[in-house]
Design brief:
This protein has 127 residues and is mainly β. It is built from no helices and eleven strands.
């Protein structure tokens, strides 16, 4: 059984930083691309970032230059370093494992290629 568990969310002032972590079990971690997604109240889910098993990275335009995704394949862990946070970054953040590819597909940000999802960790940025 695959388990995806996010942690690291919380309340931070605008301009501050948070580091999210995501631990995965039940699958061969480095066989899967990994993604971060977020959903704010009343809004659709948004793809934030994707990382291939080799470390190739992709970002939403809204977070480029502020967020950094990384992974430690030895620890089955995904990270999202978020700097210069803005009020509009407030959302539930979800970690997800791609269903069977180790690369990020062209439309990764839609999310349909991701089969395994965590329960989410809340990020609240006060302005």
């Amino acid at each position: 059984q695959v388990q995806v568990v996010e942690s690291g969310g919380g309340l931070v002032e605008a301009g501050g930083s948070l580091r999210l972590s995501c631990t995965v079990s039940g699958l061969t971690f480095d066989d899967h691309a990994m993604g971060w997604f977020r959903q704010a109240p009343g809004k659709e889910r948004e793809g934030v970032s994707c990382i291939s098993w080799k470390g190739g990275t992709y970002y939403a335009d809204s977070v480029k230059g502020r967020f950094t995704v990384s992974r430690d394949n030895a620890k089955n862990t995904l990270y999202l370093q978020m700097n210069n946070l803005k009020a509009e970054d407030t959302a539930m953040y979800y970690c997800a494992a791609e269903r069977g590819h180790d690369y990020c597909a062209g439309l990764w940000f839609i999310g349909v290629d991701f089969a395994y999802w965590g329960q989410g960790t809340q990020v609240l940025v006060s302005s």
